[in-house]
Amino acid sequence: MWRKGILSVVAISLLTAAAVAQESRSEISVQGTGFYTKDSTGQGIRQQATDTGGFLVGYRYNLNRWLAAETNYGFARNTQQYSVPLGFAGIQSNVHQFTGELVVKLPSPVLFKINPYLLAGGGALVFSPTDNNLVAGADTQGKGAFLYGGGADLPISRHFSLRAEYRGLVYKSPDFGLSSLNTDAVTHTAQPSAGIVFRF
């Protein structure tokens, strides 16, 4: 009797271990992105940012079937252009993106093998002027950001998927520490992206 009990416990343990081993909870993603920022106006200053591209690297941990936690680093380079009462100023900068978000996975459509999801979170955008910048006194500046978006994964094998995603970032326009360029306005960056995901 006790031998059957031990064998049952061992069998259940082995099956549980095998199921956990087969369940891929971690994902690493690499995506190419667009970076499109809405114009903003405030305090007599009009601010525009050039459209550009960049990349996004992320790590996602699947807490269960429908919920995951994710962190991302993104990079882009653009030029912030300011129309001020006395003229025009342009500051080229590297934009570093650091975000963390919760991901809610939606039921998959019956006819398609895609895995859709929604995401929301926050983080920071760090604007770092490049050597091409001609505006004296411009300094590196971080701006807190609210993040929302969604996307879908298309599995191509057990460990790999293709990903298409849209992220929206809402934050205060940068002024690089210069009061003469401060619009005190909120802006929005649209960040569509596509790339590949590795699950392990």
Question: How would you characterize the overall build of this protein?
Answer:
With 200 residues, the chain is mainly β. It has a single domain, classed as Beta Barrel (Porin), CATH 2.40.160.20. Helix content is 10%, strand content 62%. It has 1 helix and 10 strands, in the order αββββββββββ. The protein has an 8-stranded antiparallel barrel with strand order 1-4-5-6-7-8-9-10. Strand 4 and strand 5 form a beta hairpin. The longest helix has 21 residues. The two termini are 40 Å apart.
Map the helices and strands.
Elements: H1 2-22, E1 26-37, E2 40-42, E3 45-49, E4 52-62, E5 67-84, E6 87-105, E7 115-129, E8 141-155, E9 160-172, E10 186-199
Antiparallel strand pairs: 1-4, 1-10, 2-3, 3-5, 4-5, 5-6, 6-7, 7-8, 8-9, 9-10
What's the overall geometry?
A: elongated
Number of strands: 10
Structural domain count = 1
**Unreliable parts:** 13-21
The SS-based structural class is mainly beta
Residue fraction in strands: over 45%
Q: What's the arrangement of strands in the largest beta sheet?
A: 1-4-5-6-7-8-9-10
